[in-house]
Amino acid sequence: MNAPESIARFAPDPQGLDFDALRRAGIATLQALCGDRWTDYNLHDPGVTILEQLCYAITELGYRSDFPPEDYLTDADGQIDYQHHALHPADEIFPSEVLTFEDYRKVLYDTIPDLEDVWLTRDERPGRTGQPAHGLCRIAIKLNDAIHDRADEASLAQIEAGVCLRVREVFHAHRNLGEDLSDVTVVPVQSVYLSGDIQIHSERDPASIFADIFFQCARAVHSGFRIDRYVKAFDAGVSLDTLFAGPRTVHGYVASTGSQAQGAPVAVARLVGLVQTVGGVAHVQRLALCTADGTPVSGDSLTGASGTVLRLQFPGDAQSNFLRLHFASGAVGSGAHALTSARDHRREEKSRVVLDDARVALAKARFEFDTLRNTKQSLATVVPAPTGESRELREYFSIQHQFPAIYGINRFGVPPTAPLENRVSAHQLKAYLYLAEQLMANYLENLQSIGRMFSVDTLYETYFSQRIDNEALPDIEAFYTDAPDAIRSQLARIVSRKDRAEDRRSRQLDVLLAMYGETYSQKSLRRFDDYQDVHGARWLIDNKLDFLRHIATLSRDRASAFDISAADVRADGRPNVAGVHAKISILLGLPAEPPGAPLSDALNRWHFRLQGDHTATKQSYEFAAARLIVLKSQGEPEVRPAGAPAQPGDTLPGGLLVHGVRLENFILRQHDDAVHVHFRTHDARLGGDASGEVALARFHGDEAVTYAGRYVEILREFLCTLNQASEGFYLVEHVLLRPRGAGATQDGTTAEADAQAREAESFFNARVSVVFPAWTSRFSDPDFRQLAQETVCRNLPAHLLPEFHWMDYVSMRDFEHRYGLWRARLRGRETAATPDRLDAASASLRALLMRRRRAHDLTLWV
Fold first, then answer.
1. How confident is the model at residue 844 (pLDDT cuts 50, 70, 90)?
2. 208 with 278, same domain?
3. Distance CA 355, CA 741 (A)
4. Is residue 181 domain-shared with residue 194, that is, in the same domain?
5. 857: alpha, beta or left? (left if phi > 0; alpha if psi -120 to 50)
6. Which of 125, 628, 719, 768 meets the CB 3.0–4.6 Å disulfide criterion with 660?
7. HSE-up of 410 (CA within 13 Å, CB side)?
């Protein structure tokens, strides 16, 4: 038996909506609790009256709890914000980015209308190292038949160059990590014509039949791609997971792509089968392909000459007798025999008229096909989004409205002439029932908040309450001892005592992630919440929320690389980084979108120069701390003229940046009437013990302790900001660093060339370099480095081997300069006249990475 594709919904509890069942259960419970002390359970008993009112209220709660799920997510305007609830339509969450050559072919065919067919192969040609570089692809394209019809030789070359450039751009926008494109070539075509004898019916116009025959055979010869409307494919029974498998094609569902190999043979039997399905065709007597002079292309499977592909060309006057359409009484096309009579001449004229009419019908068929191929398909009717009804679930109407007037607790209250004892009793009953009513009102508020709970809102509470006013419960506000807002706050505090908010909110987000088969497994990240004042669990929740907000792109782009031809931002507005870059960033507690500036600029923009621990002095700590306080108060870096000399506080000790984010490293000491702020540098050179304690500031007066505490708070906050702005990483694909030009040489001298060539064989093969800054508080922790490297390895595509580089500030400045130059040259390589400048930039960055590879015992993960 096949497993169900969805989890069956629990049936509602029938007793929750059954008043009689609730009443019986309540009385049975009372009998068990009260025994002989309460024996009268008839309708006139006040206790039974209260029980019945509570049972009625519970049925109302049960009714409001059994609406369709969509209703709980519907906003006040009657709409469901699916993205807000981390819900995505099938066409957004099912497709992946390009993974296989077949996927590349679909995307290229869908994006570039000038392509008739496209083929990808691995580039097995040896490179500069003597071995083929892994991950290189070659693309061969066949241009649209209409281009050959309308372009002359001069304009055809220009069109081919433009299409090849567009192919490169599309490939780079969708390429996988560790892949690159070596070249794009246009495959030459060999023109062939249809020949044969076909018997047709007289019910249909011969020109339309001829046009259909030619169009169907041309599609089979020119391209194996077949594209359908999404609605048509879905109605035909194609499942959603098949419909959206692979990359999303915006112009329709690519039902088939034909042969993946260039120049695949065309089976004559297939052409015969296609012709047989054309309306009006009775029988195919003979069908073949021939050249312009009528020479048959022999064989059951037909291919073009070496290095070419076939192109079926519409017959001209010279080929008008190649394909003959026969009625029962004769032929429409003229025969191959010489014309011997006026009747034969009229038949020839009729054949030309049929061809002229067929050209018109063929143009219409091509127009319809091009319209289908170039029109973006709507998916609104394929997977319609569920809709719900907006409901005001939180509205509470007190059960006290339903009590008999004699109880004095409904909206009429106690008569003014009633004795004081009656008024007191009514107030006592109202207050007694209030406890149960507040619970029910809170329940309704929680129902109303289901949409907030299952959303990507920044929310740190999971139980909710509401204040009951006089409109809901008559005269209840007279019982409150404080203002309405204060009562509301007190209720929230009472509820929060039982609300393990961080744990419950975290588990709710786990449910939303599980819908997409994802888990956030970085619980050990809480050990490294150095920059959080309190609520480390909330930081974990924020990371899960960030993961959910990007779940569609994280899932789709998990193997994609950055777009070589784009700048810092892609054409669709997304940051131009590898898909796995965003996922790793979120898993490490970094922003999903990397900063536009280099990581080292976080210190450089404030004119700081990082100082090593072995050169730092007590004075440099004091000056740097004072400088940080001044800059924090200014809010923005000061503008200095070029070449301005450095100031004393511009030198920032690395120990202050690393250890200054932890409050335990700041110590307030009382010296007479002054309070001194001391700092543990963990540098034994600077103090009498291993903590290396130094003095940063001193405060005098009655408010000295307050000022010192504020000083520490400001200093730590700014240090946390500098640390966080300096954290991130770079992902460098080695295949993109390969030499490209014919004159590109190995780095170093001739004597070193052989050794470097052997080293390069492993350097370019399925390798990436992951470059981290080593100077921040978290990134200098060996345990965090281990976690970061494990996270990278678990999320990188399995065929790629990472090399990790933890660079100090100076090395990172050098790397970022070379990396920025290389990215700029890489981006301009498609329009550059020569690759020499790119090769020089690649060699510079490659030399730095190889030098570090030789100098450091790099950690390699398998």
1. very high
2. yes
3. 52
4. no
5. beta
6. 719
7. 10
